[in-house]
Amino acid sequence: MALSDDLRERVLKAVVEEGMSRNAAAERFGVSIPSAARWVERFETTGEISPSPSGGDLRSKRIEAHRDYLLGLVRRTPDITLLEIEHRLLDAFGERFSSSVLWRFFDRHDISFKKRSRMPRSISARMC
User: Fold this and answer.
1) One domain, residues 42 and 65
2) How many domains does the chain have?
3) DSSP string of 60-125?
4) Is residue 113 part of a domain?
5) What's the rounded Cα separation, in Å, for the pair 53 and 91?
6) Would you say residue 128 lies in a domain?
7) Domain that holds residue 86
8) pLDDT band at residue 53 using 50, 70 and 90 as cut-offs
9) Is residue 86 within 8 Å of residue 54, measured between CB atoms?
10) What does the pLDDT read at residue 51?
11) What is the reported pTM?
12) Is the dihedral of CA 36, 38, 41, 44 positive or negative?
């Protein structure tokens, strides 16, 4: 979790305005030396005090480029498996995606592959 902007401001003020070293400022305010150094560097390069956004999906652009093809494929053949989709993408575009990437893609688009039993369960089935 990111530390508060108030603490960052105090460390930056001590380093920039008061001329304190980054190490001394880090010790004074109880933060790590690398954190104080990163904050000062970020402030000097961008003028920003707040932390950069963290997390988020950085890799889905590649699979999203095939969005129309994938959604059309599932519409035309709703019983297709992820493995079959993998092979079709490889054949059609020469791109390889893992099953987990495909699963996350379909999950983002609220499409699920539910297993359905082929026949209703027999009432007279033997219990072991």
Assistant:
1) no
2) 2
3) THHHHTTHHHHHHHHHH-TT--HHHHHHHHHHHHS----HHHHHHHHHHTT-------SSPPPTTP
4) no
5) 37
6) no
7) 61-108
8) confident
9) no
10) 87
11) 0.49
12) negative
